[in-house]
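It would be a great kindness if you could assist me with a short task in structural biology. A protein sequence and the structure tokens that stand for its backbone fold form the material at issue. I should value your view on which stretches of the chain appear to form regular backbone elements. The record follows directly beneath this note.
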Amino acid sequence: MIVKGSLLKQRREQLGISQGQLAEGICHQSMVSRVEKRGHITSMTVLKALCMRLHIDISQVAELTNENHVQLSYVRELVECFEYKKAKKILESTSFMQNMEDMVMPEFHLLKAICYSECGEPQKALHFLQMAMSGTLHTQTGLLIEIFNEMGSVWIKLDELESASDCLERCLNLIKSLPETKAEALKLVIVKVYRRKAELAVASKAYPEAIDWVDQAMNMLPKVNAYHELVQLQKIKIKSAEELGQQAEKKEAMLLAYAAGLFSQDQKLEEETRHYRSEMDSK
């Protein structure tokens, strides 16, 4: 049967696990390699097991099922769109953890931490970040970057700026260690680290530094489906430019944020950014 092998590979790399780790107890590593490269598999049983281990809905890789299980990949999509309350409700449901593989537990704890942090519960967020860290392998570089980045975010919220700086420096060091191909695959993760650095600079009232980090993030921002992240970056630039009295830069950032909301086809994001248009027209 034809499957989306590239999607399986993307999800595996997102979790930072090897083909051998994914295949263990299910099939031979060479089968995983063939599925990823050729997009073809003969065994539905093996495909279901691989998807379960990756915590991805089989309907995302093959249109041969009516199952409708919510998976971590869907929760991550909600988090990427800043739908924290909806994601949190799913993560807290007692049925959600059924049949969850050990290798995705660090991601589960990370996503739960992000939701708690964004819903105003930073201490709970730190607890789940510690749980995520304890279950993450040193080879899972992308996941480690995400965990340290979120720790930095929580410390910023708690006004512990030195601790936040330490966490974000760890992120930058991990990013520097990435091979070029891995860095390309983790573009959005790296962008989020740069955004946190910008948020830390704003908290420290270092507004020129904040704008510099936003510009670096924009240069790395993926061209597709990154509207929510773009808006967050421009919000930082708007505030920083306002503090520095840079009206032209502020107006440009407002225009970018408005345009992102308009083209996102996300009603909530469009409504959130609509006021920038009226503010620009009034000036």
